[in-house]
Structure formats: C-alpha cells, structure tokens
Amino acid sequence: MSTASGNYYLPHVARWPIVGSIGLFTMLGGFSLKLIGVGAGAFFMALGALIIIGMMFGWFGEVIREGLQGLYNDQVERSFRWGMIWFIASEVMFFACFFGSLLYIRMYVIPWLGGEGTTGVGEFTNMLWPDFAPEWPTNGPARIGGEFEPMGAWGIPALNTLILLSSGVTVTWAHWGLLKNNRPQFVKGLIATIALGFTFVLFQAYEYYHAYTEMGLTLGAGIYGSTFFMLTGFHGMHVTIGAIFLTVVLLRALRGHFDAEHHFAFEAAAWYWHFVDVVWLGLFIFVYWL
Amino acid sequence: MATVADTHGVEHEHGPAKGIMRWITTTNHKDIGTLYLCFAMAMFLVGGLMALIIRAELYQPGLQLVDPHFFNQMTTLHALIMVFGAVMPAFAGFANWMLPPMIGAPDMALPRMNNWSFWVLPFAATMLVITLFLDGGAVASGWTLYPPLVLQMGDSLPFTIFTVHLLGLSSIMASINIIVTIFNLRAPGMTMMKMPMFVWTWLITAFLLILVMPVLAGGVTMLLTDKYFDTSFFDAAGGGDPVLFQHIFWFFGHPEVYIIVLPAFGIISHVIPVFSRKPLFGKNSMVFATAVIGILSMIVWAHHQYTVGMPVPAELYFMYATMLIAVPTGVKVFNWLATMWKGSLTFETPMLHAMGFLVLFVFGGFTGIMMSQAPADLYYHDNYFIVAHFHYTLVGGGVWGIFAGFFFWLPKWTGRMYDERLGKLHFWLSFLGFNLLFMPQHFLGLAGMPRRIPDYAVQFTEFNQMSTVGAFIFGFSQLLLIYIAYKAIKGEGEKATDEVWEGAKSHGLEWNLPSPMPYHHSFEGVNIGKAIEDE
Fold first, then answer.
1. What CATH number belongs to B20-534?
2. Do B238 and A15 touch (CB under 8 A)?
C-alpha cells in the first residue's frame, strides 16, 4: 500500500462541475416552467439536458485520459470502487422508497380502505365507500382512471426476466474473458449483454404501448397504475442508463483501453448492471407476480 | 509503520489560482471548506431574516406586518434554508477543512466531485428563493411538505421539489466523498479505532445521508407525479394514502436530525478534552454510542406521527424504540462530563460554546423524552412545545456545535487568534438571546398555542414578546460572529501557535500542523507516524 500522501493523484482544477450545475439548473428549471405552463420551459429543458450531456463527455473524457496516462495508482482506483459502491447503495435506497410504498399500500392501506383497522379508520372509510372491496390490483374506491386490466406476469415480463438474468451471465463471461486477457471473449460478452439490455428496453416499451392502448392501464389508473409505472419506469430508465454505460465501455474496449489489471470502468458498469438485474427480480415478484 | 510523509505530488508546488476562477474550479479541500462555510453563513442570515419576520409578526396578537399566507411561506423557507442551506453545509465545510488533516490524508479522495457537491448548492438555493416571486408564492405547507395541502398551492411546487433533488444530490456526493476518504486515505497507523471522534461521527452521518436522502427524493417525486402526472400515491380515492408521505418523509426526517447533530457531537468530543487537558473519557464507547444512535435513528420515524391514527401496536413500538435512544445519548453526555471531571478546566470561547451545547442539548433531549410518550404527545403535538424542543436540539445542539467548532478551528485555518473578548461577548449574547427566545415557547405550547399560525389569543402576549426580543438579540449577535471571522481572515489579532491551544498537540494530528495549514500538502515535513503514536 502506498502512503496516503505519496502518489495519490489530485487534480488541481475542476472545470466541469460548474457546467454540470448550470446544466442541472437549466434542465430542472425548464422542466418546472413546462409543468406550470410556460411555453419556453421545454426549450430550457432540452438546452439543460444538452449541457449535461456535454459535461459528461468532457468530465468522463478527462478522467479516461488521465487513466490512460497512468496517473491513477491502485489507491485512486480503490477510491473509485468505493465511490461506485456507495453510489449504488444510494440507488438501492431510491428503489426501496418505491418498493416500501407498494408494500405499505398493499398490506395496510387497501385493507383500511376496505373497512378494516382498529383506530377508527375502518369505520370512516366504510362510511365514505361502503361498497369498496379491498383487493389487489385496484385503482381505489373512486375507480380513478376507469376500467383497466392488470399486467400479467407470464408473458413479456417472464421473458424479460430471462433476458436480464442471461445478460447477468454474459457480462460475467465478458469479465472472465478480460481477466484472462482474452479480448474476443470480452468484446463478444459485452456485445451480447448490450444487445440483451436493449432488447429488454424494447420489450418494455412494447408492454407500455400495449398497456396504454389496449388495457386501459396508465399512470393515472389509480394506485395500481401509479406504482406499476413508477417502479417499472424508473427501472427501465436505469436499464437504459446501464446499457449506455456498457456501450461506452464496449467502445473503449474496442480501442484497447482495458487489460486484466486496469478496468475499473468495466467493473463499475458490471456492478451497476447486476444492480438493475436484482431490482428487476424484486419487480417481477412484487409488481407482476404476487 | 512510522514513515515520513512523501509530499512530492504529481504536479509542482504552487499556491492558489487568482480571482473568481480559483473558487469556481478549485479542488482543494481547504478552499471548498471555506466555500461551504461562507455559503452556510449567508444562508444562516437569509434563514435568520425569515425567522425575524416570523417573530416580528408574533410580537403582538392580531395581524400587523405580513399576511398569513406569506407567514406560512416564511416558516417553510426558514426551515428548509436553515436545515439544508445553513447547518448541513456548515458541517460539510468543517468536514472538508478538518477530515484530511485529522486522518493524515493529502486531500479529499474525489476532489472534482467535492467541487461539484458544493457548486450544486448555490443553484439549489437560487431555485428555492425564486419561488417567492412566483404566482402563489413559495411553498407554504411547512418544510414537511405534507400532501394534500402542498399539492393545493401555486406554481412553486416543481421548483421546490427539484431544489430538494439538487440538495440531495449534493449531500449524497459529499457523503460518498467523506466515506471514501475515511476508508481509503488514512495515513499508515491511523486505524479505524484511532480515528478522532469528529471523523467517526461524520462517517456515521455520511452513511445516514446515503441511506435516507434517496428516500426523500423518491417521496417528493411522488408528490410531483401526483400533482402533474395523474398518479394517486397520496390520494385515498385512488387507493393511495396521504399518511404514506408522512412515513416516507420522516424515514428521511428523523435520521436528518441526527445528521445535523452527530457532527456536532464530534466537535464537542474534541473541544471538551482540549480545555479539560485530559483525553476523551470512554473513546470506544463514544464510537459505539454514535453507531447505535445512527442505527436507532432509522427505526423510530413514526414518533412524529402519533396523532395520525396509526394502529396501537405501531405507536407502542415507535414509543419504546424512541425512548431507547436516550441510552446511547446518555453514554455520550456522561462521557463528556467524566472527561471534565478533575480536569484543569479553562473556559475560552470554544469551551463556553461546548458548555452551552451541553446545557441546551440536554434540555432539548429531556423535552424529547417527554414527547416520546405517545399518549402525552397527543397533547404536545403541533404546538409551541415542539417548536421549542427542536430548536433546543437543532440550534442548541447543531448550531452550538458549529459555534464551538468555528472558534476552536478558526486559528488553525487563519493562523490568527480571534478576539477572545468579542468571542465571549458573542457567546453570552447568543446564549441569553436564545434562551429568552425559546424557553417561553415551552410554556406557550403547554398553554395551548398552536404552531404555524400568525395570530394568537391575547393571554399568550407576554411570552411571545419575550420570545421576539430574544430572537432579535440572538439574530443580531450573529453579526458579531461575522465581524470576528472577518478580523481573523484579514490577519488582525495575535499570531496563533501551531498547537493553538495549550497542550493540544497530544489531542490530534491537526494540531501538529502549522497555523495556518499550508495550501497544498498539509503534512509537509510532519512525521505523521510519530504524531499518531504520540496521541
């Protein structure tokens, strides 16, 4: 282990963070304006998104160049690893919020709305909605959003489970290839993973299209629609980000950026990929199946 | 393991860049610490001004200065700005300045991200302040943002929600940086159990932030979709439940109060030993007590919701779990007292603030035990008793920790001793002003005065007038704090020695460094291994 103040690389200037802040401010401010009905909102939103994308190219590019110059010793790479681990931990908690909400609603709120409960809640809801039967799926006692058909588990969702689990295998196979310095295996594994990832996203898009056009299942379909689209939507977004992440890693792999010792970016992408994989298993069980 | 630090970095030695770009592009932990502290001070004044508007309105019964809707905007923004803009950034500033020197690290582990964690904040604050000028004004629901009320207001909701997202982003990045620095950048010989208390308390705080900020982000996102995208998370008609938001909010909100007070615990655990000229009593038990407080803080959240109609078993569970927190907190308080026992005590300004902290925080803790009782809390709920309670813990605990740390470390940062006479004056004005401000609010609450209302019944007048006078004394005495800092930064005052406080060298690595610490490479020429062993 090198000493803490030995050759630990410390950049002296950070040009991109302020660009990132301006981008975030422009994008989120624009989104807010759009939501309150100001026409220019959409423009600022797009502009902000472009600034953020530019910031990412610039910032990541700088880090990649420094990595290739060999400025990062093992200790710096360890910092990156710890950083990624705790970033994923925060993402886990973000999903925990929505899973927790789903379970709270299914275990407590729906029975209370159906007249159960000992603290007077039941009597009150019985008075408001005497004919509400507490069952899942539901769009609530007021039937918000009208008739809808819940999403079954054994069509596309089961297929998607298979796809994501397989992609977990292919990404590990790619990792093995990299560790053996077997570049063709590494690249093939990555391509397979990315292909599976984007296939998943396409299936998901088809499922959404089907839900909106034929099943009456929308974001506005009461609590079932809300939890369904919020959970699967944020997950789908994360799969897309993960697949883009892996694509960047693939492009770098084709340029020969990684070897058996130095491949933090690949590992980070693989960890992220396993994380979206595990979240999907939770979704499949609690959103689609049970 | 004793090695002389090798200070030859990759780049050549040079001082800070010139002009505004130095501050915008800096990756130096000392610069970023200064930015955080200046930002916190500015927000402290903005949030304080809002508090003074609230107190001025409450000087007399009836409506005189502001209309009720604006009053509610002030209570909401005061809380959000003080919590996210003043107190948390102040502790992040201390962490930036002091963590690397305390553990023998050259800087924070991820310096570019460190820059970003700070530079998100001014944009977030701007976005929040903009909402004051929108149709319908700023969010006026109280900082808890409870639906359905918060969904029935004007155009400020999306801006406020994205402000929360930005603040969360900043906190999470800062926390990741702190954890990584502590895990990966300790000097050889600095084992986990040798780490100073401020480092330990910040480590636990950072874990709490990473675990709860994303949950708040999820919760406010659901508010946004409920208002603009037809979802029914918090609408019973659609099968949702407004109480769900309260659970989500307090799952974040309760750990948040420990996020505010744990770093203060750390600072006090440094100040008391130095001015008692004794090592900290029961260091290991302090570490474990901090960890236990961190864990307990995450499983007691619903004691904020005793009145919403939870099932009785849930109320009982949250009541007992809450009371359990008194045990590790008691361990800490008794350890501080035991540290002072038979010490040769002196009461310079930092120690005065540490004593202020002990008195005020323990007082706030006791009223907390009163309110932890579910049946009793039905009576205390949503009146001035709770307002007094949490100001005693968050100001008496959090802000007094900041005061103590500020006077304790200012000489190490600037190389100049502050004006001791002015420091003491600031302490006494703040301490008396604060107690005059919040002590009467306990009685107002017990007598039944509700919180978040701009008007009150005439029998509450005297106590409210005392409270308002106290608020203005407390508020304006902070100008003194700025003046003291300004003088030290300008280089007026006596030159500080390296150890600053008598005998401090044996209390931590940071007191072996020159005052002020060099801009780069704090440890130039310092034998880190020897200093760690000497502790």
1. 1.20.210.10
2. no
Minimal Cα–Cα distance from B392 to chain A, Å? 31
Q: How many CB pairs under 8 A join A and B?
A: 250
Contact across the interface for B179 and A82, Cβ inside 8 Å: yes
Distances (CA, A) of B523 to B9, B14, B425, B513, B517: 12, 15, 35, 7, 9
pLDDT given at position B12 = 46
Sequence-ordered list of residues with C-beta below 8 angstroms from that of B39, at least 6 positions apart, any chain: B85, B89, B93, B118, B121, B122, B125
CATH 1.10.287.70 for domain A6-72, yes or no, is yes
pLDDT surpassing 80 at residue B3 = no
Interface test with A, best of B1, B123, B221, B517 (most A CBs within 10 A): B123
Chain A contacts of B119, Cβ < 8 Å?
17-18, 21
More confident residue, B7 or B353: B353
In the set B29, B270, B278, B332, the catalytic residue is B332
The yes-or-no verdict on residue A118 having pLDDT over 80 is no
| Cβ contact A219–B25 (<8 Å) | no
Q: Render B496-516 in DSSP notation, one character per residue.
A: PPSS-STTGGGG-GGGGS-SS
Identify the residue with better confidence: A54 or A128: A54
Helix, coil or strand: residue A262 = coil
Contact list in A for residue B188 (CB cut-off 8 A) is 1, 3-4
B258 has catalytic annotation: yes
Q: A93 and B212: CB-CB below 8 Å?
A: yes
Shortest CA gap A55–chain B (Å): 12
Q: Are B325 and B296 in contact (CB under 8 A)?
A: yes
Strand-pair partners of A13 = B26
| DSSP bridge pairs for B383 | B450
**String of DSSP letters for B449-465:** PBSS-S---GGGHHHHH
pLDDT at A124: 83
* Homologous superfamily of domain range A74-289: Cytochrome c oxidase, subunit III, four-helix bundle (1.20.120.80)
Residue among B27, B158, B165 minimizing CB distance to A11: B27
> How confident is the model at residue A2, as a pLDDT?
34
Q: In whole angstroms, what is the distance from residue B96 CA to residue B29 CA? A: 5
**Residue B4 confidence (pLDDT) above 70:** no
- As given in the structure block, the two tokens for residue B95 are 């962490």
pTM of the model: 0.94
Residue found under tokens 């802040």? A21
Q: Does B421 touch chain A (CB under 8 A)?
A: no
B303 in catalytic set: yes
> Is this complex scored with an ipTM above 0.85?
yes
Residue A89 phi, psi dihedral angles, 5° rounding: -60, -40
Domain boundary assignment for chain A: 6-72, 74-289
Tokens 């200070």 -> residue:
B7
Grouping H, G, I as helix, E, B as strand and the rest as coil, residue B340 is helix
Q: What's the burial of B99, exposed, middle or buried (CB within 10 Å: 0-12/13-18/19+)?
A: buried
Average pLDDT over residues B357-363: 97
Which B residues, 173 through 202, put their C-beta within 8 Å of a C-beta on chain A?
Answer: 175-177, 179-180, 183-188
* Nearest one of B176, B200, B330 to B263, comparing CA atoms: B200
- Decide: B217 and B165 in contact? Cβ < 8 Å: yes
pLDDT-derived band at B9, boundaries 50, 70, 90: very low
Please count the other Cβ atoms lying within 10 Å of the Cβ belonging to residue B372: 21
d(CA B308, CA B378): 10
Q: Is residue A96 predicted with pLDDT exceeding 60?
A: yes
Q: What span, in angstroms and rounded, lies between the C-alpha atoms of B180 and A77?
A: 11
Chain B nearest C-alpha distance from A132 (Å) = 10
